[in-house]
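Contributing new complexes? Match this layout with glycinamide ribonucleotide.
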Amino acid sequence: MFRIAVMVSGGGTNLQAIIDRVADNTIKDVEIALVVSNNEGVYALERAKDANIKGVVVSPKDYANRDEFNKALLKTVDDAKVDLIVLAGFLVVIPEAMIDAYQNRIINIHPSLIPSFCGTGYYGLKVHEAALARGVKYSGATVHFVDKGTDTGPIILQKPVEVKEGDSPKELQQRIMEEAEWKLLPQAIDMIAHNKIEVVDNKVVHKN
Ligand code: GAR
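Output block (do not edit by hand):
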């Protein structure tokens, strides 16, 4: 079994998409070994519980400083012995030590077509507010490997989604989730679990 940890901060609809695709066997031979949240009481933890998946909270509030929190986060994931870490709406900066230890084994879903509307300060609804303010006709979602920059790692999958006139940030967010995010993230996990891709010169390519 290919073991994954899913890291969350909020509602967990992307986590749910992964749970559902594992359950209906679209993603084969993958086990969600652990769900980690930095926030207590988020709905993503309920989703994990309902699916009989171990959920833990590692919150910065419970540690004396950032370094202690970072160490705890890394230990939590190390102890679960996972092959891949999936950031599914995890709004915490990943510790450098974790990126070093899990090179090309951490992926993130971002709700825009990178390199648009990404980087520091672009998360959740803010991404969609910026896309609407710029007046783009298409936005979308991107799954990428995580490196030491913010949203700068090799791109695995992208899908464009049409922006409709009069969209609110929430309406655009919902359409991008439904049409892109909930499909791309399970698909990327499946590709990695079955060894279909590799990173060459900082780009993702399909293996022969
Ligand atoms: C998703 O739209 C995800 O792309 C975004 O947060 C949302 C989490 O929703 N992530 C980022 O903005 C990362 N920069 P969810 O908890 O329902 O999956």
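Reviewers usually confirm one structural detail per submission. For this one: The mean pLDDT is 97.
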